[in-house]
Design brief:
heterodimer, A: 199 residues, alpha+beta, five-stranded antiparallel sheet, elongated, B: 656 residues, mainly beta, Methylamine Dehydrogenase, Chain H, Immunoglobulin-like, eleven-stranded mixed sheet, 7 helices
């Protein structure tokens, strides 16, 4: 097996790490929470950073009219399928395909990941802005518009008394490494192809 | 007349010098570089934790208070033997059985000597035991939740004072009677006390895993007063030592009549020998009636069981198990040093301290050198068992504790001081005044083979001018000393709650790591728990109405209830659905004849309400739980006794 194909094989397998490790983590810090509240986002689940954190996040958020974090969302079915399918495609082309296919897989993964991030952003935006009109506490921005409570997509941000952090976790790293490996497989494959043409 | 005037002036001068001398002395210790040094030693910065826990008995408060050292800050009052309206302990349906006794429900107690459980002679921070003096009982507090989880009544006992000390593997928690009484109790003339009354020393076994208590046996001793006790340890493990007074067996004007004998006794009990005798079927079961109350942390409910018999052992049945060591002057404290070799008798009417040697005691027993006997119990010769005397150490010695460097510290009530002396050479090394009239003292890990040095604190009986005045009734004062150096250094003076007798203290880590944050709702097995808002309901059973209610920030469910009638007995079974640290909710309703409830996350508690008037009556959360705490309220509609109003309940919508 060619070196580039071995790397492509690795690239196809690495995203499966998402089934082992969380994709993302949102953390909420406030003085009265010496242990911050936190939620892990897995490819197929939300989970507590510490026992009952999601329940306690919901309790906090209901004051400003935010919806409860759902037990399940359609993405929990779609995303795992997406990962499995792209991994299978990746495996197939690792065994059968050449470097052009690797580039195709790489582009597919970039497009799907970007779509996933956008979907995540839409959900976050809805979660932070689609508030119960009977919310206990209503806050407005200085310009008079309704204040949103959307956590950052990436990075840290102050939301009322909380400081929210949103950062990728180990699962995202596996995905990123897989995608990068796909590109590396393409580059090496192309180099070798040019070499063999030159010979 | 002139002479008298001179004398008065002279006396005034003498007193003046004396007091001013005192003043200058105290001002020295309160100023300059030293003072700031002392302040640093007790300063615990905001947000930082103390290094030690201190569990100080509440005496006539019936409870146990929790303090931090070296700051002297009080963290909690744990209700033990007294009803506690703050949390509803002894008022809620779940905890009323905790205060049940053979005399019925007792709302109050007199708590004395806390002692922490031990493993291999070291305190392990799992449980703390404390005795009730008045209606004899022993309680166990779980240091995971800081809640009283078990209380056992002690039959044949009265004035449960030489209690509640644990052996070095917590095999037993021991409870001795201060007052001797007829055993079994009967109608008889008081003046026939002598020879007829007996003193029961109870050995309560502690089951290793959950700490469940069971009276294994009682030793029925002569009718003396058994004042204090401590276990042997190390070489003397397997023995227990009790100080006695009133060996005169007086039943009236004890202050005179019980102070006639030059020597009373320390009773040495070989409990291992008696345990073996009992394990082989020895002793006899006698009819009794005593309560055993157990709080179950999964059902959040206590049950009280009356036990109808107890095993008693007469010392004469077990030769070689009990001896009497003559000890001068009505000894109060009976303290054993960390190696287990020395037993200190603090003769409270004496200026000297008597120290007995365990090795010498064994020799005397082996050589059968007896001075006589009391009711068949051999009395050893004072000289044969004496290890040494701390001469003229102070006036009125009461209690002795030990550090980890071979020193002992004794409190003197009358001369109001604490004296440090060397174990073995019996020389006095240092003395410090106490403010005023000190009772017990505590060194962290004091009653164990491994004292934890560094700090010692004394608990005083008289406060007088130590703090801003608060009228005639004052809290008692305590003083904390640094004992890490050659001389004791007074660090801090802090008020305590109730009337502290003994205290137990230890380094914080073991307890801190295990401390529970809240109760798991999932594991709540309460018979009337509503574990979600879907489970709430109101059920009528004749005149009894059971409300299955939930709490979560910031509402009750249900919060509107109709169909209650005058004359109903309404049980509010209330579950706190929170699952976060430090989010209790409270429950109070107008005209509640009991107390409020303070309900921890995951817990269920029940309050009974008997409405007497027609109307619409509010209830509310008593704990400022959240930003919407003031909105956390509800209404109960009470209709006339003969009304035909059906039960209805709701949350967030109008009742139809």
């Amino acid at each position: 097996m060619k070196k580039s194909n071995i790397i492509m094989l690795l690239a196809a397998i690495l995203p499966l790490g998402l089934f082992l490790f969380p994709l993302w983590k949102i953390t909420l810090e406030a003085p009265q929470y010496p242990t911050p509240l936190g939620m892990y986002i897995h490819i197929n689940d939300f989970s507590d950073a510490n026992p009952h954190d999601i329940k306690n996040i919901n309790l906090m958020n209901h004051y400003v009219g935010m919806k409860y974090i759902p037990e399940a969302i359609p993405e929990f079915k779609i995303f795992p399928m997406g990962i499995i399918i792209t991994s299978v495609i990746g495996l197939l082309i690792a065994f059968k395909g050449n470097y052009k296919w690797f580039l195709g897989w790489f582009i597919l993964m970039i497009v799907l990941s970007a779509a996933g991030m956008y979907d995540f952003y839409l959900w976050e935006h809805d979660y932070g802005h689609n508030l119960d009109p009977k919310a206990i506490m209503k806050f407005t921005n200085p310009d008079g518009t309704q204040m949103g409570f959307q956590p950052p997509l990436f990075g840290s941000k102050d939301i009322l008394n909380f400081r929210a952090h949103s950062y990728p976790q180990l699962g995202a790293l596996f995905l990123a490494l897989g995608i990068a490996a796909g590109f590396v497989a393409y580059l090496i494959g192309r180099k070798n192809h040019k070499k063999s043409l030159a010979m | 007349m002139k002479n008298l005037l001179k004398l008065t002036i002279a006396l005034a001068f003498v007193f003046g010098t004396y007091t001013s001398c005192n003043n200058s002395k105290s001002s020295v210790s309160n100023s300059g570089g030293l003072a700031s040094n002392v302040a640093e030693k007790v300063y615990v910065a905001p947000g930082e934790h103390d290094s030690h826990y201190a569990f100080i008995s509440g005496g006539y408060s019936g409870n146990l208070t929790v303090y931090g050292l070296p700051s002297g800050r009080m963290f909690k009052e744990i209700p033990v033997f007294s009803q506690f309206p703050t949390s509803g302990y002894g008022y809620s349906e779940e905890t009323k059985p905790m205060l049940n006794t053979s005399h019925g429900f007792i709302p109050w107690g007199d708590s004395h000597h806390p002692d922490i459980s031990q493993t291999n002679g070291e305190i392990d921070g799992r449980f703390i035991f404390i005795n009730e003096n008045n209606t004899p009982r022993i309680a166990k507090i779980d240091l995971k939740t800081f809640e009283t989880t078990e209380i056992i009544e002690v039959p044949n006992s009265a004035g449960n004072h030489s209690s509640s000390f644990v052996t070095e593997n917590t095999e037993y928690v021991v409870a001795g009677t201060r007052f001797s009484v007829p055993v079994p109790q009967r109608d008889m003339p008081i003046r026939e006390y002598k020879g007829n009354f007996q003193g029961a020393l109870s050995f309560i076994s502690v089951e290793p895993e959950h700490g469940h208590m069971d009276i294994k046996f009682q030793v029925l001793m002569p009718g003396f007063n058994y004042d204090l006790a401590h276990p042997g340890r190390g070489a003397s493990h397997g023995w227990f030592f009790f100080s006695t007074y009133n060996t005169e067996e007086a039943s009236t004007l004890l202050e005179v009549n019980a102070s006639q004998n030059d020597k009373d006794f320390i009773a040495a009990i070989n409990w291992k020998k008696i345990e073996e005798y009992v394990n082989n079927g020895g002793g006899k079961m006698m009819p009794a009636n005593y309560a055993h109350n157990v709080y179950d942390e999964s059902t959040h409910t206590a049950t009280s069981t009356m036990i109808k018999e107890v095993r008693v052992v007469n010392p004469s049945e077990v030769p070689g198990a009990v001896y009497l060591l003559p000890t001068p002057k009505s000894p109060h404290g009976c303290d054993v040093n960390p190696t287990g070799e020395y037993i200190v008798g603090n003769g409270k009417l004496s200026a000297n301290l008597t120290v007995h040697s365990f090795t010498k005691m064994l020799d005397a027993i082996k050589n059968e050198k007896f001075a006589g006997d009391a009711y068949g119990i051999p009395i050893l010769n004072f000289e044969d068992v004496l290890a040494g005397v701390v001469e003229q150490a102070g006036l009125g010695p009461l209690h002795t504790e030990f550090d980890d460097k071979g020193n002992a510290y004794t409190t003197f009530f009358i001369s109001s001081e604490v004296v440090k002396w060397k174990v073995g050479t019996w020389e006095v090394l240092d003395r410090q005044p106490t403010f005023y009239s000190v009772g017990h003292l505590t060194i962290p890990g004091g009653n164990s083979g491994k004292p934890q040095g560094k700090y010692m604190f004394v608990m005083n009986k008289i406060t007088k001018d130590r703090y801003l005045p608060t009228g005639p009734e004052l809290e008692h004062s305590a003083q904390l000393y640094d004992i890490s150096g050659d001389k004791m250094e007074l660090l801090l003076d802090f008020p305590t709650h109730g009337e502290p007798h003994y205290a137990a203290a230890m380094e914080a880590d073991l307890i801190k790591e295990r401390s529970q944050k809240f109760y798991s709702l999932e594991d709540n097995k309460h018979a009337h728990a509503a574990k979600s808002e879907a489970d709430v309901k109101v059920v009528r059973n004749g005149n009894e109405v059971h409300v299955y209610m939930t709490l979560i920030r910031s509402h009750f469910s249900p919060d509107n209830i109709e169909g209650i009638r005058v004359g109903d007995k309404v049980y509010f079974h209330i579950t706190n659905l929170e699952q976060d640290f430090d989010v209790p909710h409270g429950f109070a309703i107008i005209g509640q004849n009991t107390s409020e409830l303070l309900i921890m996350p995951g817990q269920t508690k029940t309050s009974v309400w008997e409405p007497k008037q027609v109307g619409v009556w509010p209830f509310y959360c008593t704990d400022f739980c959240s930003a919407l705490h003031q909105e956390m309220q509800g209404y109960v509609r009470v209709s006339p006794a003969n009304a035909n109003m059906p039960l209805k309940w709701s949350l967030g919508e109008d009742i139809e």
